[in-house]
Write a structure and sequence with these properties.
By secondary structure, the protein is an alpha/beta fold. The protein contains 16 helices and 25 strands. Among the domains are: 175 residues, Rossmann fold (3-Layer(aba) Sandwich); 97 residues, GMP Synthetase, Chain A, domain 3 (2-Layer Sandwich), CATH 3.30.300. Helix content is 29%, strand content 24%.
């Protein structure tokens, strides 16, 4: 016997409709590439979304066609998210920090039919254009510019598309919740990037769960500023979750330095944000140097890479801001875990609670995690057993776009490539990437833990730890650091900093001082580059 309830599709367009209907006057603030500011509300955004959807139809785009974006976090990018998916096409966000060769590969592999881009990226698109065989429409996300139209006759203009569109356009009714709505490619640290194709259903459920109190805790009382780029796994789902709950939305554009973010936080009364540790390090340094507080800011989500415990302390102790330490990946839409404590932890001693908060957190409903050994046998959730981290759930990828890489699943689980532990409450600790963990004399050493400790040293601006070849122990940890400006590093003193914090045999064998730690387009350390350059330094 079936339940006697209405059956409505879970569609991206329904989020936009809800925001316009019940939060229509809630403000959206956008910083544009030229530094100008634009303000409107969810009602105004909804009208533009429908106009753009109608314009896509006029351009001849059909259902499931991929529509690419090269854009910062701004109101037009926000409109594209919903117009493209709501109209049955697939929104394909491109990371402008990738090498041109990678962008060419991704666009051609996805067979994108249209490319929307900010004026910042016009020179980049000019260089790519002749290599893009499937793009039929190049749309500059600006109003009509007569001079550009003369010098770049191949351009269309966003403003023109809206002006020529039908104001009474309605969402098409032939979309199923399991249809694809957006496409993101992995960062491609090994081999070519691979596409992850999200559905309306998976994206909406992901957004709904991310807004709950034990995850990111968004509400209509919040002002949300997503620092994480909209081209990075759909800004962790925040552009969907914000209108879903009716939160004020502040889109910061390209200015992600400490000063620019501080001005926005103060002017707009931002209560919650989300971003990677490197961005937050710059913000904290600016706040410290200028003796500025953020009175409205309540919490921030830190993910993308491990959050150094020293950063957790600075946010909490110096600024009374709660840090939600999170973990995820493109293949998980990206939400996997968020560190929110449980009722039984409220009376925990402060030092134990601090240690708990350094973990990557626990999974929300919709994500199941498991730890497995080399024979794919599941290990106990005891907080000690260390193994390969697998996951499954309704917003976890089942296969890569185009069948790249074959079947990635193991008995229905997705292997993440991380090495981790899980305790009985589901709190997960990432020990390392499987390819980065250090095996010294048959014992494991976590490069992540050593990096986090180094980042707590007052003289260190950035740090990485790699496995370097060793004649006796096979591999030993090598610490690579970037000192803060004007600081001279004493190797002996720095290594002594680890005394009493980790087992003696974990302490790195040596320190290398460099000017920069190489990172990929999503901010993760390129340890393969470091191993190639420094991997034989201990021989």
């Amino acid at each position: 016997m079936l339940g006697l309830m209405m059956d409505q599709q879970l569609l991206i367009s329904s989020i936009a409709d809800h925001a316009a209907r019940y939060h229509g006057d809630t403000e959206i603030v956008s910083l544009n590439s030229d530094g100008s500011q634009f303000r409107y509300d969810y009602s105004g955004a909804h009208g533009n979304m429908l106009k753009l959807a109608g314009a896509l139809e006029k351009l001849g785009l059909e259902k499931t066609d991929r529509v690419a974006t090269l854009a910062w976090n701004n109101h037009r990018h926000f409109e594209i998210y919903f117009a493209v998916s709501g109209n049955g096409q697939i929104c394909h966000t491109l990371n402008p920090r990738l090498f041109p060769e990678q962008l060419i590969y991704i666009i051609n592999h996805a067979e994108d039919k249209a490319l929307f881009f900010d004026q910042t990226f016009l020179p980049l698109v000019e260089g790519l254009r002749k290599h893009l065989g499937t793009i039929k429409h190049f749309v500059l996300m600006e109003d009509h510019d007569s001079e550009l139209a003369k010098t770049h006759p191949w351009l269309s203009f966003y403003g023109d598309l809206l002006a020529d569109s039908d104001e009474n356009y309605s969402w098409p009714d032939n979309i199923d919740e399991r249809d694809a709505c957006s496409l993101c490619y992995t960062s491609g640290t090994t081999g070519n990037p691979k596409g992850v194709l999200f559905s309306h259903r998976s994206t909406l459920i992901h957004a709904m769960m991310s807004a709950t109190p034990d995850v990111m805790n968004f509400s209509a009382r919040d002002c949300l500023l997503p620092v994480v780029p909209m081209f990075h796994v759909n800004a962790w789902g925040t552009p969907y979750a914000a209108p879903m709950v009716g939160a004020k939305l502040v889109l910061p554009g390209p200015g992600l330095d400490g000063e620019s973010l501080t001005k926005l936080f103060l002017a707009e009364g931002v209560t919650i944000s989300a971003g990677v540790p490197t961005i937050w390090g710059g913000l904290l340094d600016y706040l410290d140097a200028n003796n500025i507080k953020l009175p409205d800011m309540k919490r921030t989500v830190v993910g993308g890479s491990a959050c150094p415990p020293s950063m957790l302390d600075r946010f909490r102790d110096d600024y009374d801001i709660e840090v939600l330490h999170a973990w995820g990946m493109t293949e998980l839409s990206p939400l996997g875990t968020v560190n929110n404590i449980k009722n039984k932890h409220l009376k925990m001693p402060e030092d134990e609670l601090r240690q708990l908060r350094t973990l990557q957190g626990r999974p929300p409903f919709g994500v199941e995690l498991g730890i497995f050994d080399d024979e794919a046998k599941q290990l106990p959730n005891d907080g000690k057993s260390q193994g390969d981290l697998y996951c499954r759930g309704p917003w976890v990828m089942s296969e890569y776009f185009g069948g790249e890489g074959g079947d990635p699943l193991v008995d229905g689980w997705f292997p993440t490539g991380d090495v981790a532990t899980l305790d009985e409450d589901g709190f997960m600790c990432i020990r390392d990437r499987s390819k980065d963990i250090i095996k010294s004399g048959g014992e494991w050493i976590s490069s992540v833990e050593l990096e986090n400790l180094a980042m707590g040293h007052p003289d260190i601006g950035d740090a990485a730890v790699i496995a370097a070849s060793h004649k006796k122990w096979s591999e030993r940890p090598l610490l690579i650091v970037v000192p803060k400006d004007g600081i001279q590093i004493d190797e002996k003193v720095l290594l002594e900093y680890y005394q009493g914090k980790v087992a003696k045999w974990w302490i790195p064998d040596a320190v290398i001082v460099t000017k920069e730690i190489p990172r990929n387009a999503t901010g993760k350390i390129r340890k393969n580059v470091l191993r190639e350059e420094y991997g034989n330094s201990l021989r």
